[in-house]
Prior knowledge:
The chain is an alpha/beta fold. Helices cover about 40% and strands about 15% of the residues. It has 28 helices and 26 strands. Helix 16 (about 410-420) runs antiparallel to helix 18 (about 520-550) and helix 27 (about 855-865) runs antiparallel to helix 28 (about 875-890). The N and C termini lie far apart (about 90 Å).
Amino acid sequence: MSPSALETPMMRQFLSVKARHPDAIVFYRMGDFYEMFLRDAEIAAPLLDIALTTRDRGKQDAVPMCGVPVHSADPHIKRLAELGYRVAICEQVEDAKSAGGRRLVRREVVEVVTPGLVGDPNGIDGRRELCLVALDPGASVGIAILDASTGEFRTTESEAGGSTLPLAIIEELQRVDPREILIPDGATDLADRLETLLPGAARTSVSLECYDPARVSEPPEGFDRSRSDSAMRAAAALLDYVGANQPFALAHTTRLGAYRLSDTMILDSATRAHLELFRNAEDGGRERTLIDRLDLSMTPLGARRLARWVAYPLLDPVAIGSRQDAVASLADRDRRRARLRDALKPVRDLERMLAKVARPSSTPRDLAALRDSLEAIPPVIAALEWIEEELFQPDKPSESCLVAPRPVPELCELLREGLIDDPPVVARGSRGANETGYIREGFRPELDGIRERVHKGRAWISGFEARERGRTGIANLKIRFHPVHGYAIEVTQANLGRVPTEYERKQTLANSERYTTEELRAAEQGVRGGTEQAAALERQICEELRVAVVEGAAAIREAADAIATLDATAALAEVARRDGWVRPVVDLGLALEVREGRHAVVEPLLCAGGGEFVPNDTELAVADVQILILTGPNMSGKSTYLRQVALIALLAQMGSFVPAASARVGVIDRIFTRVGASDRLARGESTFMVEMRETAEILASASRRSLVILDEIGRGTSTFDGLSIAWAVAEYLHDAPGLGARTLFATHYHELADLARTKVRVSNAHFEAREWGEEVIFLRRLVPGAASRSYGIQVARLAGIPASVIARARVILGNLEGGELDERGRPRIAGPAPGGESDESQLGLFPSPSPPGHPGEREVLSLLQEAKVDETTPLQALELLSHLTSLLRKEDPS
């Protein structure tokens, strides 16, 4: 490219900015547009679906460029950040007049938007967190998490670290689902590992110096610069990164909270996916998920708090009971709950509004919106007046979950007195003199005086127009105003002969001329100068109001926290009351007892379609029925039942009521699920490999307090291999010392039902089905005992498999179902345990029956297995016996 294209003053300024931000797309402010140049433009144009043009079109050294209007830039900036790009916002930081004789106004990068630091929170789903994470991989691995859009800042660490990430940190990263992860320079192995674990998260390397807590100049509450543990080092790196890219975000990041991974129930990514807590399995959307079912919140604050409770169920029965007390107190009081929920409606997203106001580019309308939301807090307090009278009693100390937010009257009063009710829209970074009128009259006498002078000047100009019409006799003479040229006397061509000699020509138009006079020029200078003074003073006052809000950030965040808890609690109470859910008992026992349990999501969907949900009981206890083997036909409800039990346990420990007649849950430290079939082909893992990896993680990590949900282990390989694995897994869960996890094991391997013959804490249950002719009726009712068959062939017939295939399948099934027990009547698959009795059986008094070899015998066995004894009349029994006898009397053709 010819040097001339890059040596203009503007391009030299741009290249200087670009040199300081080489890894970012620079949005370079030029008037009402953000322009992008060179490679930045070539990258951004197709991604943003905007035109790629050029300066000096047609020349060999033309500069590629594209641009977006300032007023609509935020969606484009967010789009680039979502795609993993960094965007440096370069603003004009002085007026053109302030630049004096210089050709260019001064420009500076005021913020850098990254995948984890989105800047303006407008347009972001208020129900979800948007997290930036920093990792410190040392002897123990520290993790710091910040949602810069809300100021939520927390940290934790694992007990062990090293070259590989501990499983606990991996699971926490997947639970947080960050948009961007900070790692130390040179940690290439860690970067590769994170790319596999979290392919959707951007990875950013930062220098090791950033991890030094002592470098943090203004630490938030809870940050200790004297500590050097991995959690504090990760927090230091995150604060350094935020300070370098969006320093204003630190103003509302007022507190660092610490938490332990062992304080809440662990839900790995497979469990969250299988239980469809936040995303459904069909399209990954929010519909038909648990959070969608529970989220009756009135505010984004409550929605995010509810999602946090779902993701982090509690382990402490006292804390769980306290949250249940709050839910119960609202569920039992319909009118007061309704009044509270109505009072919460006007409260907007205080956390993200505070984040927006913390930005230097915030507008008066942003401040007014925050003010209006803060003024909605007193009605919420009033809606909770009954609590002190009815709940805060010596014998009910746990009701403290219903804490009223603290108002911020001084800040509300300041914003009310300072801003008009509905401030006008002011463009981002606007410095125009016409952007005025949003500061309330009477707030600042100096501003009122300037406005009065401007008003008098405009009144004089208005009277001047009338006076000049009378003096000159030009009836259509008008005073016009142009933003660039100012005030002028406009005279049409037909009246030019009447123009006084003292008029000075200012502008020529097609059908008129514009003039000025010494008087008008003096008045214009007063008006325009006063307007500019007023605009500058209003900007100054607005900045003072913004700073006052930022200084009160801690109080606003405290109020937002209380609102979030109230809203989430009221939402759970609304669900419980509407759907007839009950309060479960959560204790430190090892039982899981549910009477008439229902699926929280499936039940309302089924009932909405005119169906009826059949409730079922559950009873698991480590000392009694530790493992329940579930058999039964396809489509009978096994998978729904497995998930409903897990969801009831999760709901109970997050402090919610549950869909059941009654429930008792001994605290569960982890819920494991191995449900369905999926692959990870991008990682080279087949469906069966994924199944085995998930199973291996369960066996390695489950404890005596875990709940294990297994659905069809071993179905991804050959029948004998899969059955052997399923049997061995069940044995391990039963026999491994110190394990004894409560387990629901659904299977089509009916042979697993024989585990109950050799394992004392294994029991069988199945879902009932009835045949009516060729039809199968699923009763959806769980009853004790093993199922006799899976009705797979009947389901295949309903799906449209050809009749000849169905008939042949029946014959083959009959052949396969023979010989399931050995000569001693024991399950063949069990065999002797390692180190146990020999495979050789003692000789019996009677010879062992030989396997059926006569063709007639096979058909007889098939007919006997299909016979329905309970439904057979005496006459039909005689006919069947005659038919069987005739088959056995046939000669063997061999």
